[in-house]
Design goal:
Elements: E1 17-18, H1 21-31, E2 38-42, H2 50-56, E3 61-64, H3 70-76, E4 84-87, E5 104-109, H4 115-123, E6 129-137, H5 138-144, H6 155-163, E7 164-172, E8 177-178, E9 185-192, H7 203-215, H8 221-224, H9 250-264
Parallel strand pairs: 2-3, 2-5, 3-4, 5-6
Antiparallel strand pairs: 1-8, 6-9, 7-9
The protein binds S-adenosylmethionine.
Amino acid sequence: MDNFFQPKARKRFGQNFLVDENIIERIVRAIAPRETDRLVEIGPGQGAITALLLHHCPGLTAVELDRDLIPILKFKFRDYPDFRIVEQDALKFDFGSLAGDGPIRVVGNLPYNISTPLLFHLLGFRGAVRDMHFMLQKEVVDRLIAAPGTRAYGRLGVMVQYHCKVQGLFPVPPQSFRPAPKVDSAIVRLVPHPTPPYAAVDENLLQRLVQVAFQQRRKTLRNAIKPLYPDLDAAQLPLDAGRRPETLSVQEFVQLANYLSTLDQ
Ligand code: SAM
C-alpha cells in the first residue's frame, strides 16, 4: 500500500528521489536525530529519508513545495500525529518560526536548482539553527569546503565558512536516486558558529567585499575593490594589494572588511 500513488518526478521541483536504503541509513546515522530534536526536513519528496527520521524523531516538521506530494506524505505517515507538513516554498519560509525555546536542526536532500539561494536564505536564520545536513551536488559541496587559492573557492565558500563550521561527509553516486541525476552528489554538515571566530564589524560590507572580490577572479585586490572604494590608497591596506582576492583566507577577508569599515565612518 506504500506505493499507492507514485507521481512522476518533476524536473522543475528538482526531484530526484533517493532509493538507496544504505545511503539513507548512512545519512540518518550522520544526523543522529534524537526524540526531542526540533528536526526540520526540506523537500521530503515521497518520504524516503523522512520515514527513518520519524522513527527517531516523531515530532519532525517537513517543508514541501509540491502540493501533489502532501496527501501521499500524510497518508504514509498517518501513524505519527506529531508529524507536521508545511506546504511552502522553503526559499520564503521563516525557519526561525520553528525554533521556539530551542534551536532547530535542518536536513534535506535539496532541490539542486535552488541550493545556493536556499543556503543563503538559511544563513539568515543561523542564530536559530543548531546544525544542517544536506545532500547537494558534489560540485557545490566542493565549493562549500574549498580552501583559498583553489578553483572551487568563491563567494559561497567564504560566506558559509564565515558563519559555519563546514564538513564534507561522503559522496553519493547518481545510481542512488530515481531518476538518476547527471551529476555526483555529496553530504555536507554545516554547524553555525555561536559567534564567528573572526568577526566582521559590518557583515554587509564583508558580503559586498566578497562579492566584488570574486566577480573578476583574475584581478588584483587593488583593482577588485576599486568599484567600492575609488579613492582608496592601496598602500594603506592591511594586506598586499597585488594579491589575487581568491588567495585570501576567510580571516583575511574579515581583516580587510574591518579595515574598510574604518574608512566608512
Ligand atoms: N527527500 C526526497 C528524497 O530524498 O527522495 C526528495 C528530494 S528531491 C531532490 C527535492 C525535494 O524538494 C522534492 O520533494 C521537491 O518537491 C522539493 N522542493 C523543490 N523546491 C522546493 C522549495 N522551493 N521548497 C520546498 N521544497 C521544495
